[in-house]
Write a structure and sequence with these properties.
alpha/beta; 12 helices; 40% helix; binds 5-S-methyl-1-O-phosphono-5-thio-D-ribulose
Length: 365
């Protein structure tokens, strides 16, 4: 998507297969590009959220294998690469999905060919991410179009949480992809962006990408959504997912569940956009079984921003001795989900419907 009129993806390959990312820790204040070279670079960039968002961390992990195999393609290195990458973040299943694909392919391959095979597969995974998200945009546009038709072509207001934008994927995003597609089609669209405490991915990332792509939007505090819904200011809630269970429970950034409850209470459609790689076919009960990342409590007590001298600083907002809890994700039960927008179409959030998706998506990379 666009940054100051120039096309970017969140991760890309340059000459000699050098891997570059946008270092998202500094947005929206500074736009920094970083090259990742060692397996440690890849692991740190995922763990410390230089890159984040479920699909993007899967793609980054795939390139971690490629670089690691370039330096040392032994079995020992392959095992280490797998365990280093798996230890970075626990919730987004796309990471596990990509690691499994890479590992199972490489363990069977001759050591001398591993570097080349790994690079080829990582490039496939990157390409597939762009294609899937693009298709999610087209599929999700149908929902937007229906609402616009019902409103006699009046403006549609969409609420989103966290950043399920192109920065969370390679390009297009998941929840934002139907929005970008609708904009291309000339829809009159407005987005309410939850700030998404504690790390403020909405305030810092979603607003940034919407601004650079000319999408009308307002930033709101996390607790404003329910109020706006009660006053008919939201037509649709559209979010992404980090892991969706086979019965359609959706794990996404902390606070998503409360938005789903408000949407349900106000009879507002609540859709989740996700590539099929975000479905964990081994988990049936998302609330019970999806592992929820607990991040450093300091993210709750400190907020990052820019001071009047343009320095990026962290300020504390709570008494020094106050302890915090920082669960980073929550699970929205399938009964609150109107539908799942995937690259293969829109599916009901239940086991039977997702079995049809499984037939279309399984093993196709
Ligand atoms: O902790 P983050 O920033 O990695 O969390 C990201 C989200 O919760 C996104 O909504 C999710 O990955 C879906 S993105 C396409």
């Amino acid at each position: 998507m666009n940054v100051n009129g120039k096309k970017y993806t969140s991760i890309w390959i340059e000459k000699d297969n050098r891997v570059f990312i946008i270092d998202q820790r500094w947005l929206p204040h500074e736009f920094k590009i970083v090259e990742l070279t060692t397996i440690n670079d890849f692991a740190v960039s995922i763990r410390d959220m230089w890159v984040r968002g479920a699909p993007l961390i899967g793609v980054t992990a795939a390139f971690g294998f490629a670089k690691s195999m370039q330096y040392d393609s032994s079995d020992k290195s392959l095992e280490e690469t797998k365990s280093i990458l798996l230890s970075t973040r626990p919730t987004a299943v796309n990471l596990h999905w990509a690691v499994k694909i890479m590992y199972e392919l490489l363990i069977k391959a001759d050591q001398d060919n591993r570097a080349e095979i790994a690079l080829g597969k990582a490039k496939d995974i990157l390409k597939r991410d762009i294609q899937s998200n693009n298709q999610i945009g087209k599929n999700g546009y149908e929902i937007i179009k229906n609402i616009i038709n019902k409103k006699n072509n009046d403006k549609i207001n969409i609420l989103t949480h966290c950043n399920a934008g192109w920065l969370a994927t390679v390009d297009w995003g998941t929840a934002t992809s139907p929005i970008y597609y609708a904009k291309e089609k000339g829809a009159n669209i407005h987005v309410f962006v939850d700030e998404t405490r504690p790390r403020n991915q909405g305030a810092q990332l979603t607003t940034w990408e919407l601004s650079h792509n000319d999408i009308s939007h307002d930033l709101i505090v996390d607790n404003a959504g329910g109020h706006l819904m009660q006053h008919n200011e939201i037509d649709l809630v559209l979010v992404g997912s980090d892991r969706t269970s086979s019965n359609g429970d959706v794990c996404n950034k902390i606070g998503t569940y409360l938005k789903a409850l408000s949407a349900y209470d106000n009879d507002i459609p609540f859709y989740v956009a996700l590539p099929s790689s975000t479905i964990d076919w081994n988990i049936k009960d998302g609330v019970k079984n999806i592992p929820i990342e607990e991040r450093d409590p300091s993210e709750v007590n400190y907020v990052q921003g820019r001071d009047t001298s343009n320095n990026i600083i962290k300020v504390d907002i709570a008494p020094e001795r106050t302890k915090s809890r920082n669960p980073a994700f929550d699970v929205t039960p399938s009964r609150l989900v109107s539908g799942l927008i995937t690259e293969h179409g829109i599916f009901d959030a239940n086991y039977a419907s997702l079995q049809n998706l499984k037939k279309l998506s399984y093993g196709n990379i």
